[in-house]
Amino acid sequence: MNPLDQYVNLETRRQFLGKAAKGLGMAAISSIAGGSAISNAATGNPFSGLGPGALGSSHFPAKAKRGIYLFMSGAPSQLDMYDYKPKMKTLFDKDLPESIRNGQRLTTMTSGQSRFPIAPSIYDFKQYGKSGAWISELLPHTAKIVDDIAIIKSMWTEAINHDPAITYIQTGNQIPGRPSLGAWLSYGLGSLNDNLPTFVILNSTWTGRKEAQALFSRLWGSGPLPSQHQGVAMRSDGDPVLYLSDPHGVDRSMRRDMLDGVNEINSELYEEFGDPETHARISQYEMAFRMQASVPDLTDLSDEPDYIFDLYGPDSKIPGTFAYNCLMARRLAEKGVRFSQIFHRGWDQHGALPKDLPNQCKDVDQASNALITDLKQRGMFDDTLVVWGGEFGRTIYCQGTLTEENYGRDHHPRCYTMWMAGAGVKGGTVYGETDDFSYNITQDPVHIRDLNATILNRFGIDHKQLNFKHQGLDLTLTGVEEAHVVKSILS
Known about the structure:
By secondary structure, the protein is of the alpha/beta class. The chain has 2 domains: 1-43, no CATH class; 47-489, 3-Layer(aba) Sandwich (Alkaline Phosphatase, subunit A). The protein has 14 helices and 17 strands. It has helices at residues 3-10, 13-21, 26-32, 36-43, 78-81, 98-101, 162-171, 181-189, 252-273, 276-299, 306-312, 322-334, 353-377, 448-458; strands spanning 66-72, 125-128, 133-136, 149-156, 199-204, 232-234, 339-344, 384-389, 393-398, 409-412, 416-421, 429-431, 433-434, 441-443, 446-447, 468-470, 473-475. Strands 1, 4, 5, 6, 7, 8, 11, 12 and 15 form a 9-stranded mixed β-sheet that branches. A two-stranded antiparallel sheet has the order 2-3. A two-stranded antiparallel ribbon has the order 9-10. α9 (252-273) runs antiparallel to α10 (276-299) and α12 (322-334) runs parallel beside α13.
């Protein structure tokens, strides 16, 4: 980005209007800023946005206007949900052949085991849809939408422990501090609305294993990007967003006067020091003020008809559940939120998988179906990208004691399953193959870099050309190693 473009992208509406008052001229401002920063303010269009992002416009026509990422934190077992391996039933409690493991690095949780007994899935699978996708009995609702989703069975990553792996898939690097996917979209494309954040986080309750991996705010952080691009976490208890309510004794008029004073001081600070983060702070204060009116309306579900709650299931009336958050994500998408991400924890079944995994699947199965169905019936499916998956997969061998009724599975980065839908993704597709043990990829590997490149592609972004200069480097979401868009799953 050249210096002029970077300067223009740092400008806030308040500063544009201030300069106009000093005689710069509305026409000149409009030509510099692409016309959006001012003309959109007068249209009343809820999708008018706050102007283009750093890119100015997408690199090519976008299929997705908005995205919803359903992230299953803890690593769902592909073997028990999507990757059917019937031959394993004849190998129950046999040792995993060394030729299959091939010296793979193990976690400290199983590296001390004297053997690695094969644990076949105890769940029945059937084929569904035009693709004949094999889906577990644990996912009866997902089975009904296989013709709407593209299942990728050949995902892989180098990370073998949760925090580096989640950090990796969210930010493109195992080391914390890089911008997250949602922050990149916010930075590159800008906002679709005036009164809500561009990037929203929804954390869900869960009913599986109670001991779950922690989620850190840096997973939806902006790294070195201006801080207004970080995800805003919405809560299920109290204020939907922290500090949304005015303090006792402070009304809207007083709040407005206070913000005007603070923004004036910040504007003077920017003139003196030129710190772009000062612009970000002004933008965040203004967004918080507008959210005081927009967020309560967003979270009031009284206007949703009964058939919508029936579609998402009974949990959709309980704030904080995955079903409630899926419904909220649809409402966010309708209001012009560019990207929302739902985190659902508890998928880390090292033991007692048959006890915990069915509960986890029940949490998300009907709601995932409902989200796709709801987007379709509202005419939003074709321009909304939905992604479902976790940070890695789970092993065919058992962690701990194996019985015919009980087993656990360790972390497995070499292959796992995710799915995508909407925004020009080919529904009814099954992409990639794994060996009989769901241990190694045998066809069409998809690295998490490739997944992120494909997500950006749906938004009209060339992943190589969305970058940010920081500490002498051109940072990108996909890093310096080659990443490929998975064109076979796209129309």
